[in-house]
Amino acid sequence: MNLEFTAEENAFRDEVRSFIENNYPQNVERAAVQDELSPDDMTAWHKILGEKGWSVPAWPEQYGGTGWTPTQRYIWSEENARVNAVMPLPFGVAMVGPVIYTFGNEEQKAKHLPGIKSGNVWWCQGYSEPGAGSDLASLKTTAVRDGDDYIINGQKTWTTLAQHADWGFFLCRTDPDAPKPQQGISFILVDMKTPGIEVRPIKLIDGGYEVNEVWLTDVRVPAENLIGEENKGWTYAKFLLAHERSGIAGVARSKRGVEQLKEIAGHEILDGKPLLEDMGFATKISQLEIDLAALEITELRTLAGEQAGKGPGPESSLLKVKGTEIQQRLTELTLEAVGQYGTPDFRSFPADGSNDFPIGPDYAHSAAPTYFNMRKTSIYGGSNEIQRNIITKMVLGL
Amino acid sequence: MDFNFSDEQNMVRDGISRLVREQYDWDTRRGIIDSDAGWSPEFWAQLAELGMLAAPFSEEDGGFGGGAVETMLIMEEFGKGLVVEPFIPSVVCAGGFLKHAGTAAQKEEYLSAIITGEKIFAFAYAEPQGRYDLANLTTTAKKDGDGYSLNGQKAVVIGAPWASHFVVTARTSGGQSDAGGLSVFIVAKEAAGVSLRDYATVDGRRASEVYFENVALGADALIGELDNGLPLIETVVDEATAAVCAEATGAMQVTHAMTLEYAKQRKQFGVPISSFQVLQHRMVDMFMEYEQSISMSYLATIKLAEDEATRKHAVSSAKVRIGQSARFVGQSAVQTHGGMGVTDETAVGSYFKRLSIIEGEFGSVDHHMRRHVALTAAS
Question: Which of A2, A239, A315, B349 would give a disulfide with A205, using CB separation of 3.0 to 4.6 Å?
Fold first, then answer.
């Protein structure tokens, strides 16, 4: 047993650290701090990494992967989290990409993988529906074969950043008479510019717009956009959900969050001393760090299993539950740390840039919106209740 | 022992409950908080007309002879409707200072106008560096002729954009966090040297940073004793804390009810999600948190009139318990609503946000826990 990195791994860390320092776009860094990311900001780093050949590290090398070991990938995500990098969006890189290279045909690979890799094509995920959330298999959106096309009708929801998407991957019902709901579903790629698609942004409780309703009315899609076999889409969807969950622990990002929390608690003064030195508050931060250490080692054990050729299994549900609980706890403590200046809604501040009358420290402005927004993490990607059900069945065998 | 309300108190409760139900439904509230003004002067006028702004004051002060219980009943109903109008700043806080320490002339000029709704007060006590410590003040009122000259900044003054006047806490002597040397003043918003930076709050209200620069105050602006304001400030803030605790219980009740309703209607896997035991138990826990909160709201309200140590002990106990419950109930409601819970369009998100901010209002859970520990050690 050994938790140390090898000399090669340390050299790798130095290499990626200096690449990030020299190439991470500073305007994106500023925009991220101010919580004002434009669509261009969200893909800027992806595009730079695409040119470097580092945008899809986890993919097989034949499709553009870096051939990094899971440990190297872990170092990579740690180093990016150090600078709070806005990483490539997961919808292409971590979700549909692996589905396409695993289950797609050669034409589909040739057509779609390069755009995912370069960051030039923005993808969205058409899974959830108003009536199909935790019970995803009950989805009602239909795709009916008509000559060389499918005609899609239905409504998707919670579609993240669909307002900017070029392409989407959709789960559609192709056999309404299948004996089990999971058996009649197909996985179809859709050009978001196809007539009949309407994207309606949903305002969230933090005041931002990151998810959408997607309405599909007689959307005609070439049948060649079907991934794998008709009615086998559930298999591909499950494969994808396991991939989605493995990145969801967010350890590196939470570590960065703890550092930011400590900075804030170092600035806030309670009884003449930094809040960070208050036994009560410091204890809460320590508890969070301890929980995070446990999660980190658990994730490393999972990674080691992957390195030994074991794919992400139902254990990834543990990473999702604990990872999101820690992310949420971090936002609770940050809101507590900023005190009264968590109350002002910074979206209502005058936009004239005048700062004659500062409204509390800048770090306070995003505390409440982030706390509100991060409630989503125990709901999305399979709610934490569903994750516990998965562990109940798949791990405990109950 | 008697947990029943008097006939008069039941009338207040029924009246305010009906008014909130009929005049402050969800869409109306939305319209109010999205308007330029961000509040409803018409609703305030109705409250005045129904005597609600007079409810917690004695008859000799121009009120209806009620007190803290009336405030509790009103705030509970306001919590149910997420009413944003400034009952706590104007009636509970400013009204409280005048009730406890106002001169006959001050009551005549200000308290009667608070009751009629003609004057609206905000309570400017917190400062950027204060972190819930009522005595940690850098705002100063220096003797200047017969009166005072006021300088300083007040942070997150709730309702300030709607106010005609402020009650301001300031240091008249002593060092930054000394218990002595504090005084309380009435300041007109239109006085020279008063400036505001207004903004919305994340829970749908309005507030301001308020700046005082060489504001000239007359000798009659002082409420209570010079240099010995802290006991008075603590009394009024404890009353306001009890009021916000009552507001929280109202908000929790509605939050729990709407969660139950949603769980019964929402179907997944062919059955209502309310049939899942893991969600049933979560809703049971929400119910228990709510019931415990009601008890603590009663406790704080009843003990307000007792000696200082008893009062502080009860109020801090209530704020700790209710702050914790507010977080649990709000988060659980959002979780049970799933994706709908994090959208702006559903009411549950607004209740969650209000409950989240209530956690820190008039002192966070940690602040009141520390006060509770200190009081326990001293007794």
Answer: B349
ipTM here: 0.97
Higher pLDDT, A250 or B249: B249
Q: Which residues of A touch B328 (CB under 8 A)?
A: none
- Residue B72 pLDDT greater than 70, yes or no: yes
The whole-number average pLDDT for the span B58-71 is 95
Do the Cβ atoms of A328 and A291 come closer than 8 Å?
no
> Is residue A200 within 8 angstroms of chain B, CB to CB?
no
Residues of chain A below pLDDT 50: none
pLDDT at residue B318 in the model:
98
pTM of the complete model beyond 0.90: yes
* B126-163 pLDDT tens trace: 999 999 999 999 999 999 999 999 999 999 999 999 99
Per-residue pLDDT at A352: 57
Nearest to B343 among A203, A336, A342 (CB): A203
Give the Cα separation of B229 and A197 in Å (integer).
Answer: 65
A71, two tokens: 């440990």
Task: Using an 8 Å CB-CB cutoff, list chain A residues near B339.
Answer: 128, 133, 157-158, 211, 376, 379-380
Return residues 326-345 of B near A (CB < 8 Å).
327, 331, 334-335, 338-339, 341-345
DSSP A4: P
Helix, strand, or coil here: B169? strand
Contacts 24+ apart (CB under 8 A), B24-29: B24/B81, B24/B83, B25/B81, B26/B347, B29/B81, B29/B82, B29/B83, B29/B84, B29/B204
- List of long-range contacts for B135-140, beta carbons under 8 Å, 24+ apart: B135/B177, B135/B178, B135/B179, B135/B182, B135/B230, B136/B176, B136/B177, B137/B169, B137/B170, B137/B171, B137/B176, B137/B182, B138/B171, B138/B176, B139/B168, B139/B169, B139/B170, B139/B171, B139/B212, B140/B170, B140/B171, B140/B172
